[in-house]
Amino acid sequence: MEAAEGTVNGSVDYKGNPVHRSTSGGWRSASFIIAVEVAERFAYYGISSNLITYLTGPLGQSTAGAAANVNTWSGTATLLPLLGAFVADSFLGRYRTIIAASLIYILGLGLLTLAAKLTSVNLHDCRSTKDARLCAPPRFQVILFFFSVYLVAVGQGGHKPCVQAFGGDQFDGQDPKESKAKSSFFNWWYFAISVGITVTLIVLVYIQDNLSWALGFGIPCIVLVAALLVFLLGSRTYRYSAKENGKNPFMRIGRVIVRAIRNRRNTLSAMPSEEDACLWDRCSEQFKFLNKALLAPDGSLEDQNVCSVNDVEDTKALLKLVPIWITSLAYAIAFAQTSTFFTKQGATLDRKIASGFKVPAASLQTFIGLAIMIFIPVYDRIVVPISRALTRKPSGITMLQRIGTGMVFSAISMVTAALVEMKRLETAKDHGLVDLPKVTVPMSIWWLVPQYILCGIADVLTIVGLQEFCYDQVPKELRSLGIALYLSIFGIGSFLSTFLISTINKATSGDGQESWFANNLNRAHLDYFYWLLAGLSALGFSSYSYFARSYIYSRERAI
């Protein structure tokens, strides 16, 4: 169905009427959506960036145990968007899901603030105790804390996949001008949330480490309430996706798979008409077994059970993502280290940058945000135009080329981290600090900056590339799921990181030996772990390159 002049095909306004291009969508509407996402990232990183410090401090957990808990929580938080996307794409829609998820998010942050306040009161009563483990908070407070952070994860699960997809919906991919703006949207989206993350790492982490954990968790709660109000202010300007048919998109995909399995022994001769034979010819060559979903079982054809060519091609579009998804996991495992062992590594170094002021270890992640904020404009305004002139492609380089380049930078960052850790261990040994883990190693914290910057550049290339790729290459009705699939890469990556840490910790701590992740980092071997991650990154990139070279884009503009 063609859109009327001045209207946007496939979109409606808040009343369900055809939406006009001049009065809706575009950067104006996207700015409201970006604002709520900046606040959400501010809140999320206010927890995740310094969570390992809270667990090893007020909650008294071991380094390995805390890292495992951080990775498990982070993994859960990035897998729950799959559920949130299902709810949004099947039932509530993105707009309503964002509102519901924000309310859950705010409740979780409020309870987290309460849990931190109760724990601080408990610690105040036993400060004279030398062993922090003997000052562990009551079981109720621990349960309340973990219930709160996982409630935040549930809220994030509904919020994250819908906000970015809803932002992308504000640009019409069929309009040349808006299509170009949509491509830039993913770059500047990541730029904006990096600003929120950077503010978190500078302001909130300092408040948490030096003033109050309760205040450090309470501020994000207030910010998210304000952001939700801002998001609601833009309701009249948004473009809402109009369902092209009444079919549940997940049901359509599932029916294709079921019918293809049932018809696996049928042949083309079972097609009831020449018209349907033509439909068969229109199907792509990839995953040809799914074409049998078009076949009529036993030579009969019932209208209510027919799968259309679009249904089959949409199913293929999802399956084509699987190899890219799997081979991106190595990148996600490396990505998980920036908020865990990188932070613990920095806590042992000389963090003084001015008289009486010490940089919080978690604030080093600021350099990732700074690298992102510097490199995104460079990429969008310099790298893309130059590569566009060389390749004659609208995006300069393809999305998959961009993702792969970031993987290379990630592997280099792991090599750099390993070399710096070797230097740190050598310095600790030379100054007789091997058995003095609480004494600062006389080595500047600036040694860690290169590995953070390399991670930031890798994020600009791989994470933004994955966001655009997963949004662009899925059926329109499943774009929340596309964003959720991108997020799930990092969820599974966090779980794999937890598995690696647990396995290595058990394997290397036997026979009286110190684990690679010993609480005394001067006797640990994080350098071995980083070398292992560098090797996994190289292996992952090789596998990714193999599948990326043979990938066929679902949309012409992506080529």
Automatic annotation (TrEMBL):
Question: Per its UniProt entry, which superkingdom is the organism in?
Answer: Eukaryota
Q: Does the keyword Transmembrane helix apply?
A: yes
Q: Which family does it belong to?
A: Belongs to the major facilitator superfamily. Proton-dependent oligopeptide transporter (POT/PTR) (TC 2.A.17) family.
Q: Where in the cell is it found?
A: Membrane
UniProt GO molecular function = dipeptide transmembrane transporter activity; low-affinity nitrate transmembrane transporter activity; tripeptide transmembrane transporter activity
Lineage of the species this protein comes from: Eukaryota, Viridiplantae, Streptophyta, Embryophyta, Tracheophyta
Quote the SUPFAM superfamilies the UniProt record gives.
MFS general substrate transporter
Keyword Lipid metabolism in annotation: no
TM helices/strands, residue ranges: 98-116, 188-207, 213-233, 322-342, 362-379, 400-420, 445-466, 478-501, 528-547
User: Know the name of this protein?
Assistant: Protein NRT1/ PTR FAMILY 5.10-like
How does the record say this protein sits in the membrane?
Multi-pass membrane protein
UniProtKB keywords: Membrane, Phosphoprotein, Transmembrane, Transmembrane helix, Transport
Q: Could you tell me which InterPro entries the record lists for this protein?
A: MFS_trans_sf (IPR036259), NRT1/PTR (IPR044739), POT_fam (IPR000109), PTR2_symporter_CS (IPR018456)
Instruction: Give the GO cellular component terms, alphabetically.
Output: plant-type vacuole membrane
